[in-house]
Structure formats: C-alpha cells, structure tokens
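Next up, a specimen:

>
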Amino acid sequence: MNRNNDLLKRVRISDAPALCKYGIIKGSIKSAEQLIRGLDSLPFIDVYTCKDSEGTIIALVNVTHRDDECFSSEFKFLFSNKLSIEELNANYKLVLGRCVRTLWVEGFFKVSTIIKTDEEFKGICLNELGFIQEAVLHEENSFECSNPDSALFYLIEPRYKEYNCCFVPFQKGVYVLYGGEDYIDCGKIYSYGEEVTETVALRMGKYLGILNSNNCLLPKGSEEYIIEDDYIGSFLPSEVFKGYRQLKEYFQKERSSFDLNIKFESKSDFRLNVWNEIRKIAYASTLCYEDIANILCDNNINKAKTMVRVVGQACSDCPVPVIIPCHRVIGKDGKLVGYKEGIEFKDFLLIHESFSAILI
C-alpha cells in the first residue's frame, strides 16, 4: 500500500521564483518570499505547492485547521494563471486528489472546500472523489448580487473514493483489502480480537463500528459485521468493492478464482514472475516452492534448488494473499511453512478449498 505523494509538498522560500514565474503569486520574488515567511508563521495554516508530472508548480494549496487536534480542515486552491481553461479543468481533479491524500496522511479526518455553484466541472470532480455538498453559501464571494452563490463540499476519510479499504469477515478472521477506483494493491488478514493499527483501516473500522475502544476487531459473529452491500458500495472505490464481493463469494464457496486488477508496487521482475506462476495454481491444488523454482528455471533442477529460498521470500512478500493464492505453495515434504499471515490461516484456506461444505 503506497500513499506517498511527492508532488505535493509544503511551500518553501526557494519556491518563490517559480511561484512568480508561473503567475501563482503576483509581484516581485522578494515580496513572494515575504509572503511565504508570513504564511509559515501562522499556527493554523499550512501551504503546499503542487507540481504536474513534469515537475512544474501549477498551484498553491492553502489549508486552514479548524481545530487544535487537526480533526477538520478547509482548503483552497490558487492555480497558475499560465494555464488555459482546458488545462485548469484537466489539472483540478489531479490537484484535488493529491491534496486530499496528503491531508489524510497529515492526520485530518474531515476536509472541506468551497466552489462557486456555476463551476459544474469542479462539482463533478468533488462528487467523483466522494465529496458531499453540505450547504449553499449565499453571497459568499461578493456583495454583487449578480455573482453566483457558493457551495460547501465536505469529505470524511472513510468515504474517500480514490483510495480506501474494506473489511471482509470470514470463518477464521477478517480480510482487509486496500485499493482505488481501478486497482487493488494490498491485503492483510487479521484474527478476531486483533488490534488494527494501520491508519486507513483504523478509521474505516471505527466508521463501520467493528472496532472496540482499544481498536481491536470485535469478536466473531458480532452483528456489526453484517453490512448491506448497497451501503458499503456507495462509498468504496469501484475495484475495492469488486474485491469485497469476490472475497465474500470465495469464503462462501461460491467462487474459486478472482478477476481483479492488481497494482504491484514491486519493481522486481523475479517477484512478479513468482506471483504470476502462483496465480496459475488451480483451486484446491498445491505446489511446493521447488516446483515454482523449476518452472521459472525451465526445469533446470540444479538451478531451481538454489532458488527455493528466494521463491519463499517472494511468497512472503505477496501483496494480496488469497487473491494471489500463495497459501497453495507448501514445503516439499508437504508441511505448511512460510505463510506471512500465519500458518493457522494457511491451514484454514487449504482445508476450506478441499471440502465442499463451508467450515464453521
């Protein structure tokens, strides 16, 4: 799971020349430097620069904290006056997404912004990310009655549609799946009663009411785990919701394979090759680590024997267990070894696939 954002960073004095060059701040470089120093001294205001994919600063983002604990914030954009209307429209959602992701990382739970009611394209972008219109602000921008009113939009992190997670309870524990609108990238299996520490899962778990006061998952069978698909599908990213339904079907023995787009953060061709081979292992079947190595070495047995350990490490690094069925890779002697999620889960998954009845 990677939510790092290198293209949105806190404004620095050294950004002043570029901010003037691209028409984001008017006036001299010296006056821009003074403005940045002044903003930096304000306790409840953070200012970020946003760059495009080519590294050019295209906007400033002004974030105002609404409380001492960074629970809620309001943000405003100031775009380069060098951008055409088409470029502005094309970059708005890009900057919006980066801004929101950064604010989640900074610890905010609720974010809001104001747009003019006639800025239809901005409203569409906000809705696509899960923002909800909270109010219409009359005469917010000017005393001139001819100016359009403004609309206040807000979003809380558990309803963020660009990147989020879901919880899938099953007989042995709870599967947490992460991803975005068109991909999944991470999965983790928890035991019932285990503490959840990762920020995205922690906030979603609290929002759904499936964590206790110590941030631990509720016991197996708790009614809070019963959630209607229509409800959770209304705010999960599309591919995550697709994964949510497919995992539920798998644990109910209604599915034996997955049709999901996995985004791999690993750049290692070897790991990708291992994971691709694992995905070919049939439901309720197993291979040993040496079998995988043999396939990758074109049946060069001597070479394969030297690769067993690194194949095992690649299995351990599998980003989405179950969906990539690394539980189907076992020791040469038939023993269940080397499962990152815990041997007890590996044992459960293999037995689950081997019997026609659902395990209780």
User: Anything to note?
Assistant: Residues 85-106 form the longest helix (22 residues). The mean pLDDT is 89. The longest strand covers residues 57-65.
